[in-house]
Amino acid sequence: MSHKLSLFFLISLLIATLVPAHTLIRQVVVDSDDDVHHHFSHFKNKFGKSYGSKEEHGYRFSVFKANLRRAELHQEADPTAVHGVTQFSDMTPDEFAEKHLGLRPLQFPKDATKAPILPTQDLPASFDWRDHGAVTPVKNQGSCGSCWSFSTTGALEGANFLATGKLETLSEQQLIDCDHECDPEEPSSCDAGCNGGLMNTAFEYTLKTGGLMREEDYPYTGTDKGACKLDKSKIVASVHNFSVVSLDEDQIAANLVQNGPLAVAINAVYMQTYIGGVSCPFVCSKNLDHGVLLVGYGESGFSPIRMKQKPYWIIKNSWGETWGEQGYYKICKGPNVCGVDSMVSTVVAAHTTPH
């Protein structure tokens, strides 16, 4: 690599670290306004976008154009994945963060129960709970910062499957409407519907209240303006206990295999334009802003920039099946890439049936 290219690459990485965590990226080189108009037209057709006025259309076009300018740099920072236009490409960073993320910037309480250390010598080379019936179909949180509730229900759905043999689709809306549990170390930081929350406080609420209802009995509305409609006679899944998993990839894998899908927090900057492949960014903030579900791991995600097979985590997201790989994200294992190992929780379900 020439000195000129090396210098350009180093500058690119430096800029990538300074770009705000919620920037939108597009893998397109834009040479002219005609190119931008072409991509914007394709974007509107693909995602069924329409705007109420010429002013709004013009504004969204300018946002889209600004997002395209970040494309080349961001693709260079994460060359092992495929990035492209997503349904979020006409949104400003702040709009995206408000409507499609929602993890409160909290840490685990110092006295949080820690998961016991598990043996790791006989772990399978790859594992996926989707192959074993413990994962419900991909859901869509819509324009509500409720990712934390989907991460919570996903973990309890899997744990309940292990405890009862039945896969129930659980209600995020119950958590949005009824869960106002607070961090014991920061009483002013509480689960707050579309304004964010935390998976461990949601598990605490579920433990205290007795459990969660089915989604069909308490359907998702994507808003937090309604009153709590909990009917305890229709609870189908209850928390027996929950704990924090060690910041160790082998322990995370062992807990995943033994206890079911895990509630995980991540920095979502590269997820905003993710299309497919294994995301292995050179630089990624560990500031956690999105709650997701860890359902498995693989060993054969080729990373050409590292010239070897790179193991990866399999993440279930809550942005619908049209995003990513049918709603899933692959991120390489490594030194806590994008903070994915920082906040991992496992939950054990009680054997619960409706009253």
TrEMBL record:
Gene3D superfamilies: Cysteine proteinases. GO terms for molecular function: cysteine-type peptidase activity. GO terms for biological process: proteolysis. The keyword tRNA-binding does not apply. The keyword Ribosomal protein does not apply. One of its GO terms (cellular component) is lytic vacuole. Keywords: Disulfide bond, Glycoprotein, Hydrolase, Protease, Signal, Thiol protease, Zymogen. It comes from the Eukaryota. InterPro entries: Papain-like_cys_pep_sf, Pept_asp_AS, Pept_cys_AS, Pept_his_AS, Peptidase_C1A, Peptidase_C1A_C, Peptidase_C1A_papain-like, Prot_inhib_I29. Belongs to the peptidase C1 family. This is Uncharacterized protein.
